[in-house]
Amino acid sequence: AAKDLRGTDSELQKLLARVPPVLEVLSPDNGSELIERFATIKVQLDTAPDAAKRLKVIVNERNVSRSVSRTALSSGGAAVKGQFEIKVPLRKGRNDIHLSATDQAGFYSERRLVVDSTLDEVTFSRGRLLVAAVGVNDYPKMPPVCAGPAGSCQLSFAVADAQRFTEIVSSNVRPLFTEMKTLLLVNNGEHEPTADNISDKLEEFFADAKPEDTVMLFLAGHGVNIGEDYYFLSTDAHMRKSGKYRKSSIVRWDVLSDVLEEADGTRLMFVDTCHAANAYNASLKKKAGDGRIIVFSATRANSVSQELAEHGHGVFTYALVRGLGGEADSNSDQAVRILELGSTTSNIVRNLTNQEQTPVFYMSGLEDFIIAQP
């Protein structure tokens, strides 16, 4: 496509002429041994033609970008550019540090650094668990019947899915952390799952996350593909007479992914919606991987996430709850690890739907870890 458009598309020519941000680690050297609780990393960031939009820091697979101390040694103005000293927390032993810079056009550069610490104490505590769950059954501004294989625009169990997910996390995941904070956006609850509430309250809720925390976002409801983009249908979703959605009444997927990407800590997303996996197309899947976000998606692209009345839940949520409840403890060690949960959830969903629904699990660059203790 780029070859065919050369000489005919000025915007393409501008993109092809761009270079990504130039990010270099000046000190310490890779493999250095440190005794401090914090490593001071000196970086050089140069960009052309404009400054980086974001400088992200991930330490031992936890996002610390909001919390790290950063001092500009020299700067190309108010934008992110120049030399910086970044102080990042360390734990005893090996520490993997991942730095990345993204410019206004989405061009991306990254550097990785490994340092060893001889500390006797661990900087990261168990931290808190922050859980936000969104469930939408009611779509009063939508037609009685939706186009496509899903049929009715109204759902039966999305609210129950969000509530049950929160309950199983509270009982089996919560004991791994110092405390649990919960935000529930469901029909007839304290906060209705409107487009404004979903965008604003999620951003506010996850902004409180610290590097030692773990944050979870659960979504149950309708999802639709519009062109190459994916949208979550909030309860005030409105379809025009033309059959097109009023964009202000639905939630674009990158709004949701950005909320998690900006949060500090370990981030997990669980998506039980129609066409769920298409939420992470090639571009957004890479973005999730770069940001170390773990994603459980109910189904592959262009497939339907099913509800089964006999279980009172969406199939994906039902399987996920069974896994967190202990069924995913495949080696009987009284703990459910994240890879065990992914495998068990997928097997249950495929068996219950006669292979018609296949969940998708993304976990880029992360080590396996305990997610629940039944």
Word description of this protein:
The protein is built from eight helices and 22 strands. It has 374 residues and is an alpha+beta fold. The strands form six sheets. It has a six-stranded mixed beta sheet, with helices on both faces. It has a five-stranded mixed beta sheet with strand order 2-9-8-4-5, with no helix packed on it. Strand 13 (223-226) and strand 14 (229-232) form a beta hairpin. The longest helix has 15 residues, at 158-172.
What are the SSEs and their pairings?
Layout: H1 2-5, H2 10-17, E1 22-27, E2 33-34, E3 38-46, E4 52-59, E5 62-63, E6 69-75, E7 82-89, E8 93-103, E9 108-117, E10 129-135, H3 158-172, E11 180-186, H4 195-206, E12 214-221, E13 223-226, E14 229-232, E15 251-252, H5 253-262, E16 266-273, H6 282-290, E17 293-297, E18 307-308, E19 313-314, H7 315-327, E20 336-337, H8 338-352, E21 360-362, E22 370-372
Parallel strand pairs: 2-9, 10-11, 10-12, 12-16, 16-17
Antiparallel strand pairs: 1-3, 3-7, 4-5, 4-8, 6-7, 8-9, 13-14, 14-15, 17-21, 18-19, 20-22
Helix pairs in contact: 3-7, 4-5, 7-8
